[in-house]
């Protein structure tokens, strides 16, 4: 079953958006923003539309303003999902870009950052990117994790998490419906040694933190609240 909500509200991609720039880190081209001298780094793992989405880069810039060196890796390698390409069905695209497949590349990026004196790393994943984050959260490479309206995540993924994790779900979400998010919460409650935070946002749909209309005050406020929670979570667990 294809998760259609992951593919709705396609953004207009813009390679020149954001105040940062693109460099190769650990073998992966990445949008980077913030001071390269920062000792705390954040990876933002995109949805199916990749690292050229202007709102994603805006979020990265916002996180960087809080003292982080932020990277948005191009884990799609120049091949974001294109809803206009009718000759390449969603299922075919997903086969080429299996959720979580980028975990090993993410490890290479994190290792490269730590060789440059980064002392702590947080990772957040939006939709398609959530699987990569849960894979990393099972390792000792990162210190904090956040899932925002995750896709393709099952309870067993959450059972394996061993670093602090925040999960932000949507009231209207067929991919991670509130009932499933509640199951995630119960699993985490059974692991009190792992700090966790779970919230289902009312009156929002899948993708609300990343593919929203910035001219809609309610949509912008809901997204902004989620971004604030994400930043606060990283502050709590990385700025020790």
TrEMBL record:
Residues 31-237 form the Dienelactone hydrolase domain. Pfam families: DLH. GO terms for molecular function: hydrolase activity. InterPro entries: AB_hydrolase_fold, Dienelactn_hydro. This is Dienelactone hydrolase domain-containing protein. It comes from Vigna angularis var. angularis.
């Amino acid at each position: 079953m294809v998760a259609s909500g992951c593919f709705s509200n396609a953004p207009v991609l813009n390679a020149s958006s954001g105040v940062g720039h693109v460099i190769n880190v650990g073998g992966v081209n990445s949008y980077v923003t913030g001071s390269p001298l920062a000792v705390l780094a954040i990876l933002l793992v995109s949805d199916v539309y990749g690292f050229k989405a202007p709102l994603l880069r805006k979020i990265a810039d916002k996180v960087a303003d809080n003292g982080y060196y932020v990277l948005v890796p191009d884990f799609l390698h120049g091949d974001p999902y294109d809803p206009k390409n009718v000759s390449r069905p969603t299922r075919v695209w997903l086969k080429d870009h299996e959720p979580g497949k980028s975990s090993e590349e993410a490890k290479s990026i994190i290792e490269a950052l730590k060789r440059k004196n980064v002392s702590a790393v947080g990772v957040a994943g939006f939709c398609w990117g959530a699987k990569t984050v849960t894979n990393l959260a099972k390792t000792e490479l990162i210190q904090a994790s956040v899932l925002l309206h995750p896709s393709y995540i099952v309870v067993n993924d959450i059972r394996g998490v061993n670093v602090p994790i925040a999960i932000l779900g949507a009231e209207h979400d067929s991919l991670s419906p509130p009932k499933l998010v509640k199951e995630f919460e119960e699993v985490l409650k059974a692991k009190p040694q792992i700090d966790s935070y779970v919230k289902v946002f009312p009156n929002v749909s899948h993708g609300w933190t990343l593919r929203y209309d910035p001219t809609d005050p309610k949509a912008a406020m809901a997204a902004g609240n989620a971004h604030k929670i994400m930043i606060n979570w990283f502050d709590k667990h990385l700025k020790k």
